[in-house]
Amino acid sequence: MEKLTVQSEFEIYEGLQELPEDIQDLMSLAVETRKNAYAPYSNFKVGAAILLANKEVVVGNNQENASFPSGLCAERVAIYHAGARFPEVRIKAIAITASSDKYVTSAPIPPCGACRQAIAEYEINQESPIPIYFMGAVGKVMKSNSLKGLLPLLFDKNNFI
Ligand code: THU
């Protein structure tokens, strides 16, 4: 029997102002996008913004539905939006923010497991890490240098192709 230890490292920024300028802009856009989330059932609004290598930025927010499972998270709306508009362009960074008038969202809120798996597909295809920044409505921002840091031992198409 062997043991495998998997470690992930995160950077923690005290606030938006500590981030590099392009990421501040990206996170500010995620905040703006968050405001347009359609979340009447959860009262939990999420916004995501994706910076691409061609300098384009695409956004997404959560879109809920009266049939609850038919809704979609902000991160997947954003990454599929990027895939639909710029299929061959490398993703440089993703910024994510969440807020709620019902729950406390002052700590960084990381993407859910399904969104991590969705983002993984793009990181694997582009063969370079995607830095992911995430925060709540206010306060600290956390950064993972790659999707893999958030989803070790991910399900990878290269395992079965
Ligand atoms: N949500 C996201 O948009 N991203 C996540 O990573 C987790 C959850 C959304 C889904 C749903 O509309 C609401 O937040 C509450 O779960």
Automatic annotation (TrEMBL):
CDD domains: cytidine_deaminase. It catalyses: cytidine + H2O + H(+) = uridine + NH4(+); 2'-deoxycytidine + H2O + H(+) = 2'-deoxyuridine + NH4(+). GO terms for cellular component: cytosol. It is an enzyme of class 3 (hydrolase). Pfam families: dCMP_cyt_deam_1. The active site is at 75 (proton donor). Zn(2+) binds at residues 73, 112, 115. InterPro entries: APOBEC/CMP_deaminase_Zn-bd (IPR016192), CMP_dCMP_dom (IPR002125), Cyt/Deoxycyt_deaminase (IPR050202), Cyt_deam_tetra (IPR006262), Cytidine_deaminase-like (IPR016193). Coiled coil: none annotated. PANTHER family: CYTIDINE DEAMINASE (PTHR11644:SF2). This enzyme scavenges exogenous and endogenous cytidine and 2'-deoxycytidine for UMP synthesis. Belongs to the cytidine and deoxycytidylate deaminase family. This is Cytidine deaminase. It comes from Zhouia amylolytica AD3.
